[in-house]
Amino acid sequence: MGLFSKTPKPHPKIIIEGIEIAFNREHDWWEFTYRGTYFCSFELSLTLPTKTELDSVLEAMESLKPEMRARLKKELSEWGDLKLDDGESCSVDIKDFATDKTFVVTWSGGESWGDLGVDFTIKDGAIIDEACGD
Questions:
Q1: 55-99 pLDDT per residue, tens
Q2: Which of 30, 73, 79, 100 could be cross-linked to 41 through a Cys-Cys bond (beta carbons 3.0 to 4.6 Å apart)?
Q3: How far apart are CA 56 and CA 81, in angstroms?
Q4: What is the β-pairing status of strands 89-93 and 37-41?
Q5: 102 lies in a domain?
Q6: How far apart are alpha carbons 66 and 10 in whole angstroms?
Q7: Closest Cα partner for 74 from 12, 127, 132?
Q8: Could you tell me if 57 and 92 are in contact, meaning their C-beta atoms sit under 8 angstroms apart?
Q9: Which residue spans within the chain are E strands per DSSP?
């Protein structure tokens, strides 16, 4: 640490029903992990879904995982020699969940992917939109 550097401030956190929710100051988003899945919201106000709603999001993701993986494999093949299952991660953006019950599952971070990401917008247990880019 330099002479004039400050210790970074910790991210503000709240805990609701055992879910630790933090506001990431560097990137201005809310983030939390529930049942092993990373959730985020890029809005300044966060409306936290109930545990029942979070469970339904996870159930929808699990049931759609084969379809997402098939589409993901197709998208990656169109970008060159990119591979599925080489370290990618998946996160869930819930910024619109409170208003219209949609959420976005983002796959990114694969070793061969660089900064490429694929987003699947999900509503009522179905993929309603797909976007790919870097």
A1: 999 999 999 999 999 998 888 888 878 888 888 889 999 999 999
A2: 30
A3: 35
A4: parallel
A5: yes
A6: 38
A7: 132
A8: yes
A9: 13-16, 19-24, 29-34, 37-41, 89-93, 102-108, 117-123, 126-133
With H, G, I as helix, E, B as strand and everything else as coil, classify residue 71.
Answer: helix
> Running DSSP on this structure, what letter comes out for residue 80?
S
- The pair of three-digit structure tokens given for residue 45, joined into one six-digit string: 């106000």
Q: HSE on the CB side for 51, CA within 13 Å?
A: 7
Confidence band for 1, pLDDT divided at 50, 70 and 90:
low
Q: Compute the distance between CA of residue 13 and CA of residue 15 in angstroms, rounded to an integer.
A: 7
Place of tokens 């400050």: 6
Structural domains counted in the chain: 1
Task: Tell me whether residue 2 is in a domain.
Answer: no
Say what the pLDDT of residue 68 is.
Answer: 94
Let me know if residue 77 belongs to a domain: yes
